[in-house]
From TrEMBL:
It comes from Vreelandella rituensis. The chain crosses the membrane at residues 16-32, 38-56, 68-87, 115-135, 147-163. One of its GO terms (molecular function) is transferase activity. This is Phosphatidylglycerol--membrane-oligosaccharide glycerophosphotransferase. It is a multi-pass membrane protein. SUPFAM superfamilies: Alkaline phosphatase-like. Keywords: Cell membrane, Membrane, Transferase, Transmembrane, Transmembrane helix. GO terms for cellular component: plasma membrane.
Amino acid sequence: MLRRFFRTSSFKTHQWALLIIGLCLGYTVAVLTRLPLWTLLPIAALWVAAGLKWKWADPAALLRYRKVWPWSLVPLVLGGLYVYLAASFGNVDLGAVFFHLQAGMSEHGGSGRTVAAVLYTLSMVALLFSVTWLVRRDQRWRRAERFLALVLLAANPLLYGLGQRSASIVTDDGAWLERRYTPPVLSEQENPPNLLLMYLESIERTYADERFGEAYTSLDKLGETGVVFERVRQMDNTGWTMAGMIASQCGVPLMPAGLLHDRQFEPLSKVVPGVDCLGDILAERGYQLSYLGGASAQFAGKGLFYRGHGFDRVQGREELEPQLDDPDYTNSWGIYDDSLYDITVEEIRRLAAEDGPWGLVNLSITGHAPSGYPTRACRERQGEFDGQDILYSVECSTWLARNLIERLQAEGLLDNTLVVLMSDHLTMRVSVWDELITMDRDNTLIMLSDDLEPARIQRESSMLDVFPTLLDALGFTPEEGRAGLGVSLLRDSPATLVEKHGLEVINEHLQEETALQQRLWEGLAPKSRSSEEFPFDQMLETPADQADEIIISH
């Protein structure tokens, strides 16, 4: 059948081949340059016009048919994979790809992306058939596509990223971050506060800009009574949900286990077992800890992480759906946030009735890219949803969060409680993506407590600094304000890694780091080399590092 297809030679066939290649080329240019999607049409038209002018595989100018397989088929597939990831998520994070492959992607709610993946696959098949058809009929194409294969391989960011990962094995300094890691050393207190930690999916602080209307207004109102942190940046390996949670609760970037995982073809059994995180610290101090999330706790190792780091109750989609009054009121990811927050109120009532302090972490999904999952309550309040406008979903998410806090305050359930609202990461590709990427983006971080005076703190920082800041706000004062790779933003000093080195330098070192990766996955990985084997002295900072201290302003 394939042989018959490739031997078929009609005037229309070569035009179809040119059109398919032109459309794929136009789409790739639009995605990678972030041009409007409609620009793929003129690009495709120019391509087809060039093909007709130079008679690429035109039946009137055909050379003898040769059954050859193009060199560029594999590079085209790899390039198509990168374009799919860029179109779906905006920024392609190799760390996220590697981690999800090992932590597990079952029970995900991305049904829309599944459909997109099928369409991409069909488009790639059509592209490969078209290139093969032309190569077998035109000697010029046979010569040119070999060069094209090399260009595609050299230009693919996925292969460049893999090369960087491989180079880290032989780098001169694979412990730049490890030398800066500080295990939490904390003070104690007699009456520690409770903790409500709310992750608002993709609700970055950038949405507070006036260009986005009233989408962020509810969080602005809450921030007036608490501490608002600005300039909390996103470094590499912190840009997806589990990575954001681990960065903010453990003070480390989520470096995937990779080849350190001793059973490569089985899911991970633990998540970052080598470091003490917020849950470990609170559990040791008698906290009752719960995690609630509308999506499945099986997805991306969320359940493994929380159960392995001190949480008593971990409830995701599977545990929460039976608690719904209306079992049909769900979405592709799980339960809606108005249902999640109703259950959150019940869980806090239960925890408040127990002896000792409690901590509850919940994760929303209303703001999930690409268009969000606005709830029934928001539709009644905000009117009809067009299915695309992410600002509608952002406004819904922020309003729901404010409403929950006001409900809990009215019942007196937040007495002696630190409330933290934060984004898990910056948003991925959404309807206002073109506006977002031109802006100075940062994450949401707001803390509310009777012990914190309202303030607005502006410091160049990252999600790593959230961990010691949380500990400080809870009263477990970290020694010298340090924990993990972060420093407490409630203090004027020491300087954060971002203040001292900048995101670009940190991200470069992250690509080379091996020692911190060994620490994170201790117990699942081969034992790391002893300090005697490293060709450098263990120190917190080098003289060059110390030279760039800066003044911190509030």
